[in-house]
């Protein structure tokens, strides 16, 4: 019945909701307090959060710009290195070409020196053969002289006629042998 008593009390005043000056004043004070609280919390929370978000946004923008500049720099370095590699390849090819030319020149020089050495060896061999031929000719002359001296001494020792002379020459030649005359 307690609820019934409250209902009866409201009905006596005749109003269910009493809109009086105290209620309006309380509502206005509450509204001012909420506004002050909003401003205070805005300074305490909203501005620092907004500042933090702005710093974060600036950092992200800065990082993105740094990344883009790093990417551009990396592409430039890559292009530079590729050009250096091409230049190095060309230089290596140039060095190899020069080395081939030097090798061909050295090969020709060695072949020419070998030909000259072979010509000198052949010339020396020909000179030695000529000297040997000369020596053999000198020996043959010496033998002919000694044969002539032997024959002359035999002719003088025997005063013989022509038939005996021919026989003596024939005998002397046979004694010397055919090998003497062939060498």
From TrEMBL:
<keyword id="KW-0812">Transmembrane</keyword>
<comment type="function">
    <text>Component of the F(0) channel, it forms part of the peripheral stalk, linking F(1) to F(0).</text>
</comment>
<keyword id="KW-0375">Hydrogen ion transport</keyword>
<comment type="subunit">
    <text>F-type ATPases have 2 components, F(1) - the catalytic core - and F(0) - the membrane proton channel. F(1) has five subunits: alpha(3), beta(3), gamma(1), delta(1), epsilon(1). F(0) has three main subunits: a(1), b(2) and c(10-14). The alpha and beta chains form an alternating ring which encloses part of the gamma chain. F(1) is attached to F(0) by a central stalk formed by the gamma and epsilon chains, while a peripheral stalk is formed by the delta and b chains.</text>
</comment>
<comment type="similarity">
    <text>Belongs to the ATPase B chain family.</text>
</comment>
<protein>
    <recommendedName>
        <fullName>ATP synthase subunit b</fullName>
    </recommendedName>
</protein>
<keyword id="KW-1003">Cell membrane</keyword>
<keyword id="KW-0138">CF(0)</keyword>
<keyword id="KW-0066">ATP synthesis</keyword>
<feature type="coiled-coil region">
    <location>
        <begin position="64"/>
        <end position="142"/>
    </location>
</feature>
<keyword id="KW-0175">Coiled coil</keyword>
<keyword id="KW-0472">Membrane</keyword>
<feature type="transmembrane region" description="Helical">
    <location>
        <begin position="23"/>
        <end position="46"/>
    </location>
</feature>
<keyword id="KW-0813">Transport</keyword>
<keyword id="KW-0406">Ion transport</keyword>
<dbReference type="InterPro" id="IPR050059">
    <property type="entry name" value="ATP_synthase_B_chain"/>
</dbReference>
<comment type="function">
    <text>F(1)F(0) ATP synthase produces ATP from ADP in the presence of a proton or sodium gradient. F-type ATPases consist of two structural domains, F(1) containing the extramembraneous catalytic core and F(0) containing the membrane proton channel, linked together by a central stalk and a peripheral stalk. During catalysis, ATP synthesis in the catalytic domain of F(1) is coupled via a rotary mechanism of the central stalk subunits to proton translocation.</text>
</comment>
<dbReference type="InterPro" id="IPR028987">
    <property type="entry name" value="ATP_synth_B-like_membr_sf"/>
</dbReference>
<keyword id="KW-1133">Transmembrane helix</keyword>
<dbReference type="Pfam" id="PF00430">
    <property type="entry name" value="ATP-synt_B"/>
</dbReference>
<dbReference type="InterPro" id="IPR005864">
    <property type="entry name" value="ATP_synth_F0_bsu_bac"/>
</dbReference>
<dbReference type="InterPro" id="IPR002146">
    <property type="entry name" value="ATP_synth_b/b'su_bac/chlpt"/>
</dbReference>
